[in-house]
Amino acid sequence: MAEKKKEDMKKVQAEKVDEVIEEAVEELTEEALEDIVEEEVSELDEALARAEEWENKFLRISAEIQNIQRRANEERSSILKYRSQDLAKKILPSLDNLERALAVEGLTEDVKKGLEMTRESLINALEEEGVTEIKADGAFDPNFHMAVQTVPADDEHPADHVVQVFQKGYQLHDRILRPAMVVVAQ
Amino acid sequence: MAEKKKEDMKKVQAEKVDEVIEEAVEELTEEALEDIVEEEVSELDEALARAEEWENKFLRISAEIQNIQRRANEERSSILKYRSQDLAKKILPSLDNLERALAVEGLTEDVKKGLEMTRESLINALEEEGVTEIKADGAFDPNFHMAVQTVPADDEHPADHVVQVFQKGYQLHDRILRPAMVVVAQ
Question: Which of A39, A180, B24, B60 has a CA that sits 20 to 30 A from residue A55's CA?
Answer without folding.
Answer: A39
